[in-house]
Amino acid sequence: MAAESQVDYDQDLDARGLNCPLPILRTKQMLRDMTEGESLRVRATDPHALIDFQGFCDRSAHELVAYDEAEGVFTFWLRKGPG
C-alpha cells in the first residue's frame, strides 16, 4: 500500500516479536500521549497484525494512513484522531 520512504511519522513503535493483543495495546498507549493529527509508525511481526490494525482503526477515530509488509514485518502508519 505504501513505500516506507514515502510516509512521514512523528513517533515510532517497535512491536516486533509481540503477539496479539500487545501490538494494539502498545499502539493505544502511544496514541493516548500524542496530539491529534500526529502520525505513528508501528512495526509488528504478529501474523494477525493487518486484521487487528484495520479493525482497530475502523472502530476508533484514528486513521490507518498506509501499511506495508516485507519479509514478515508489517509496518503501519496511523494518524491520531480526535479524543
Automatic annotation (TrEMBL):
The keyword Transferase applies. PROSITE patterns: UPF0033 (PS01148). It comes from the Bacteria. GO terms for molecular function: transferase activity. Gene3D superfamilies: TusA-like domain (3.30.110.40). InterPro entries: TusA-like (IPR001455), TusA-like_sf (IPR036868). The keyword Transferase applies. Pfam families: TusA. Residues 13-37 form the UPF0033 domain. Keywords: Transferase. Belongs to the sulfur carrier protein TusA family. This is Sulfurtransferase TusA family protein. It comes from Spiribacter salinus.
